[in-house]
């Protein structure tokens, strides 16, 4: 989808990897005071690897991707609450009346289908948010964190879709006597550990990736927030989980607000635009 241009043999060693910030054209060996022969953008603009000098198309993808991620996250929270509510109501009805709620399985199936849809849209959002900057090929392109975000988001999406499919096709009552099926339980535990690992990897890589973006603006407050949140939110999550489950809610709220702030940062950078072209005499 976004293959980088193949690295060419570079003549002068002073600019080992200089690519047009606008179109990704290889600028190695060209007069630095000139324009990109491909798109006409100022070459000097590509020398400063700030986010403001990046192409608007690239910044637009980051911003739109992050918007999708935020919307999907908020809708997913509502979806999750609905699933928990249906499950509790159904368990309660089964306990009191001895009969499970009539449409509980259907409701959970529909909510499961919604989960699958949201996971797909969310994957697309994360993909856009981690688009490769065409102006940065080779070093300094945030590749490691960017790739870990992408790999871990694929894994978490597969796990989310898998468990949702399970919810859609296997009615809740099928698990009623499952305590004897040790294989199912062991499998569930292994999957849970694997899933937690993927979520942790995705979270840490996202924070590093956002720090890399913030450093390019530069936006010191956002960069400092990543340094704080990278350990604070997981601690809050785990410690707070033991305290009546409030920790995950608080850390999720902080995380969502932070992602809104990151999007605002990108939009500020877009509004300011690239370094202006100097007046020609
Ligand atoms: Zn260009």
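^ structure tokens above, recovered residues below v
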């Amino acid at each position: 989808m976004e293959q980088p241009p193949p690295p060419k043999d570079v003549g002068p060693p002073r600019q080992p990897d200089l690519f047009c910030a606008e179109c990704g054209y290889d600028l190695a060996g060209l007069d630095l005071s000139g324009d990109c022969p491909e798109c006409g953008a100022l070459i000097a603009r590509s020398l400063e690897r700030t986010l403001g000098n990046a192409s608007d198309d690239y910044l637009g993808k980051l911003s739109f991707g992050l918007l999708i991620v935020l919307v999907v996250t908020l809708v997913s929270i509502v979806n999750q609450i609905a699933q928990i509510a249906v499950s509790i109501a159904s368990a309660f009805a089964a306990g009191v009346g001895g009969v499970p709620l009539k449409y509980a399985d259907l409701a959970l199936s529909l909510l499961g289908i919604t989960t699958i849809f949201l996971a797909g849209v969310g994957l697309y959002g994360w993909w856009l948010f981690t688009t490769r900057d065409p102006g940065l090929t080779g070093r300094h392109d945030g590749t490691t964190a960017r790739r870990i975000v992408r790999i871990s988001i694929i894994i978490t999406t597969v796990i989310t879709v898998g468990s949702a499919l399970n919810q859609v096709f296997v009615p809740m009552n099928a698990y009623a006597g499952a305590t004897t099926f040790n294989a199912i339980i062991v499998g569930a535990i292994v999957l849970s550990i694997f899933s937690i690992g993927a979520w942790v990897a995705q979270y840490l890589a996202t924070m590093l990736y956002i720090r890399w973006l913030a450093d390019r603006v530069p936006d010191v407050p956002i960069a400092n927030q990543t340094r704080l949140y990278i350990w604070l939110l997981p601690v809050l999550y785990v410690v707070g989980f033991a305290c009546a489950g409030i920790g995950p809610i608080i850390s999720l709220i902080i995380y969502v607000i932070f992602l809104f702030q990151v999007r605002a940062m990108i939009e500020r950078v877009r509004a300011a635009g690239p370094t202006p072209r100097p007046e020609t005499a």
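The CA atoms of residues 77 and 252 lie 10 Å apart.
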